[in-house]
Amino acid sequence: MRLGIDFGTSNSAAAAVIDGEVAPVRFPAAHGEALQFRTTVYFPEVMRDPNDFALTPAMEHEVERLVDAGRRDALAAGRPREEAALRRDAVRVVRRDWMEHSVREPASSAALLQNAVYGDEALEAYFLENEGNLVQSPKSMLGYSLHPRARQTITGIASHILEHIRLTASRQFDHNIRRALIGRPVRFRSSIGEAGNAQALEILGEAARDAGFDDIDFLEEPSAAAMHHHAGSAQRHEAVIVDIGGGTTDIAHASVGGDSVPQVHRAWGIARGGTDIDLALSLAGFMPLFGRGITRVPAHHYVEAAMVQDLPRQRDFRQHRYDGVPDPFEARLRALQEAGNTARLYRAVERSKIALSDAPRHAESLDFIEAGLGTDIADAALVAAAGPYLDELEALLREVVADIGHAPGVVFLTGGMSRAGYVRERVMACFPGARLVQGDPSFGVVRGLALAAA
């Protein structure tokens, strides 16, 4: 048996063909089972034992500095505090930094990940513990320049996710699954150009082998989506396949349908997708509540806070100081720096994006930052925030039309972002006269992978 795996930026899924029918893998979830799970992992830092913590001379110096700063702030506010309370707060800050940045010798990534939690439960565990590491969308990191240790950790995370998929599928299908066809974008997100694609595939291949797969192949995701469209088409026809996911946008020109095998003529892709709209919506609709465009806080601080997938940027944001930022923004920024709150904000942004795809307005409470704080966003604000991505999408589609040389009769649209009406409108504006076929937004690619794997 060969398993089709959609290792996604936002969500992951898998399926196999059983007795001629596509059977999705059902993953354990908080309320029963789910056909996909959020590609998120929470794992505690290896240095979490309080007995391991001891103040060094350098730490003691930092404690004294924090105490002095706290004393000055308290006096300026007209609310003097006891020295013991100031010191307790300072030690707590130093201990938190120690737990975040220290690494026990010689702990391996495998040991670090033994108690990992995946999916939506990872978010809940992180919120509950308020310590440790939350890694969201590890797929988005595969093509970036990575320190050897960071590469080892990312490979370990991907391996544990793929092992979770393999073992769950093996139990469900009562078969020890060792073969997999894994979807891949045309172009991974990358900071090192084309070398990023090769690196991403190397990491995924290594992770899959570590997860217990002996036979591994990759298939471009728009080609998998073409296979899904082909299976539901009785008549042979030409189609442009548009797959818009969380991290990438992929397009294929294919001949599908009928009794012949599907034929993919060419594929295109950009490393942009739904997470770019999330970032834009966060900056435009949420970050003004923290002073963006109002205070003199550098603009990149807000980008760092919004990009929860980027661990170095998250660490940079937590290390900034906001002394002297005018009220109420200083207190809000400090609250946003507390463990888990950037992830909570990101989840609020995601909810808003999804809700505004079907509703004219959406309100979100940010009580975790400040009692009574919230935002009320109109759908027009979402479309405006999505504008830069939509312009890139249109430019890619125009390139596709020019390369094909004529307009196709059918556009097959799939991927999570295909649910959004403003995305569908921009796609079809590039193909006037074509017939739109809406595929399964969540499972179009994984169904195609399962069919191709069989």
From TrEMBL:
GO MF, one annotated term: ATP-dependent protein folding chaperone
Q: Which residues form a coiled coil?
A: none
The protein's superkingdom reads: Bacteria
Q: Which Pfam families match?
A: HSP70
Q: Which InterPro entries match?
A: ATPase_NBD, Hsp_70_fam
Write the record's keywords in alphabetical order, separated by commas.
Answer: ATP-binding, Nucleotide-binding
**Which residues does UniProt assign to the signal peptide?**
none
Can you say what this protein is called?
Answer: Heat-shock protein Hsp70
Lineage of the organism: Bacteria, Pseudomonadati, Pseudomonadota, Gammaproteobacteria, Lysobacterales
